[in-house]
């Protein structure tokens, strides 16, 4: 009778712990040069998943199955009482490292599907709120003036806050009316056109800010970096002083996307401008702003346009006579 050959590698995979597997996953993420924020996101949701597995007495990756994931989804919905969108945010993270473990043979192959969730309408700034925010302040206080320029820039470009605070003076190419985004989420450099209005605003700002090409474009009153936390705090205060209770910096990005779509901009260019790797993310904007798309629909509808044109009408009188 033939003996079965022992496999040290198989035994190693069977005994791979959750913690060991996640350490390998984060190393893999760093090798792929993923953004630090992405890795932090994975770490945060791994901690929640790990706590759930500990309560379930699950120590090894090999013990994770589709049932494990289903139980975790039920736990999130019933025990933590988070909404469906938050559940999917958690599952996306879990799916990333579980699929990685599957690719290495640490656990069995199975699909992890997101649950059905209603899309939340993304909040935006109204035209009235924007008029309040875009009213130019006096030029006596640099911080307030910089905040005004910040609002103009975010609304004109739709960039992420993390991208915004890392723009340097040399990234503004005035001759070409372009800004270079070198710290995007995908780590791919992209060039964004600058409109006439924001170009004029930036020219004035740079004449006041000065600075070398390698200096950060947006700075504090002493020339230091205007980091994300400082930016959020400054714009929150700026908005409230002007009577606008919405304070999220990300709303400028949503507002940019909404107005792009409502003004007839195509979603493929919008994808490039916003720096999204998937067109599906951009399609969500179209779905979320579907009610706004109904406004003045008759003005763009070809049937309405042609029907309203003057012309001779065919008379139906006498059609029913025999």
Automatic annotation (TrEMBL):
GO terms for biological process: DNA integration; DNA recombination. Residues 119-298 form the Tyr recombinase domain. Gene3D superfamilies: 1.10.150.130, Intergrase catalytic core. PROSITE patterns: CB, TYR_RECOMBINASE. It comes from the Bacteria. Pfam families: Phage_int_SAM_4, Phage_integrase. The keyword DNA-binding applies. Keywords: DNA integration, DNA recombination, DNA-binding. Residues 16-102 form the Core-binding (CB) domain. Belongs to the 'phage' integrase family. Site-specific tyrosine recombinase, which acts by catalyzing the cutting and rejoining of the recombining DNA molecules. This is Site-specific integrase.
């Amino acid at each position: 009778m033939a003996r079965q050959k022992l496999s040290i590698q198989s035994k190693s995979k069977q005994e791979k712990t959750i913690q060991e597997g996640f350490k390998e996953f984060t190393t893999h993420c760093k090798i792929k040069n993923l953004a630090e924020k992405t890795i932090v996101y994975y770490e945060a949701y791994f901690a929640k998943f790990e706590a759930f597995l500990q309560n379930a007495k699950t120590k090894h990756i090999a013990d994770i199955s589709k049932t494990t994931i289903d139980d975790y989804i039920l736990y999130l919905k019933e025990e933590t009482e988070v909404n469906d969108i938050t559940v999917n945010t958690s599952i996306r993270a879990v799916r990333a490292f579980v699929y990685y473990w599957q690719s290495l043979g640490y656990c069995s192959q199975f699909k992890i599907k997101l649950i059905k969730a209603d899309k939340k309408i993304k909040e935006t700034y109204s035209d009235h709120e924007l008029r309040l925010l875009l009213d130019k302040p006096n030029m006596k206080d640099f911080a307030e003036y910089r905040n005004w320029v910040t609002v103009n820039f975010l609304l004109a470009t739709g960039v992420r806050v993390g991208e915004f605070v890392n723009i340097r003076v040399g990234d503004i190419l005035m001759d070409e009316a372009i800004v270079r985004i070198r710290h995007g989420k995908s780590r791919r450099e992209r060039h964004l056109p600058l409109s006439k209005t924001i170009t004029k605003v930036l020219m004035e700002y740079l004449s006041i800010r000065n600075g070398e090409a390698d200096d950060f474009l947006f700075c504090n009153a002493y020339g230091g970096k205007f980091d994300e936390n400082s930016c959020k705090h400054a714009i929150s205060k700026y908005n409230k002083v002007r009577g606008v209770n919405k304070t999220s910096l990300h709303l400028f990005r949503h507002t940019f996307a909404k107005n792009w779509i409502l003004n007839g901009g195509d979603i493929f260019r919008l994808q490039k401008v916003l720096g999204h790797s998937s067109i599906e993310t951009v399609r969500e904007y179209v779905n979320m702003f579907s009610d706004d798309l109904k406004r003045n629909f008759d003005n763009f509808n070809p049937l309405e346009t042609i029907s309203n044109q003057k012309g001779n009408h065919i008379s139906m009188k006498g059609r029913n006579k025999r």
